[in-house]
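Journal club side-thread
Mid-discussion, someone asked how the predicted structure for our own chain would compare to the paper's figures. Pasting it here so we can look after the session.
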Amino acid sequence: MSIDQAIPVSALLRPMPGRSSANFRKTMSIIRARLARRPASYSRISWPVWAGACLLLTAAAMIFLDGAAADWRAQLPAGFVATARTFTDFGLGGWYLIPPAVLLLLANLLDWRTLSKRWHMVACNWTCLAFFMLGAAGLSGLAVTVLKHVIGRQRPNLAGVELLSLHPFAFEARFASFPSGHATNVGAVAAMVMLLSPSWGKYVVLPVTVWIAVTRVVVGMHYPSDTIAGFGLGVACTVATALIFARLGFIFRRTAAGLPVRKKTFRLRATWRKRASPPPIRFLETANP
């Protein structure tokens, strides 16, 4: 096609609103149909046990760690604190909300009819992953924001602060210490990766996310108990989101007990089957016709 015959940009953009609306309606219809077909049967996870364990750890941190955190922080080397300040911003929610939101926007503008069966599956899997990330990060972010302002714990970096100085519904950043929002975000990310790729989650992502949560204490923005509660909250929100996705049949499959398991059909890249090579011709079979 020559330059003179090129399709105008307006002609490419004109069908996008209608396509976006149609894609959204199709997605919602698929979700409604699957919810209607699949009963609300979830894994028998002992939520009270895990919640109780998290609350006990949080209480222990309040009793034994929160009071000593300021003295411990004052003895840290300046280089260590500077490194923590560099890493602590990776706990901001934008890192985990904006990329999946952009991916969903692009998927919603895609003309799915033009895709081959193989690439259609890849696009579906990427879209499901974006939905999962946005749902888990969004749910955990909403939960921690509500709790922060309902509880209203004063941050430790304020002068003359008491360990349990509470100002409910103050709606100010200085009274939004418990739970830690950064720790909640990275806890959600750790759970996402551990559900999708347990080996990477346990040995790579979990230590990194725990370190990012610890930086909130190092930089003086939170108590240890804030980060423990936030990390646990992020994990719980992600697991709850994964259970809903398993019911829908997206990414995960349901299990009678335990955490949802990633489906074998969930792949983020196209795969091509190798053509079977013809069987070798044996010499003895051809030597005596």
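Post-session note: The CA atoms of residues 88 and 212 lie 5 Å apart.
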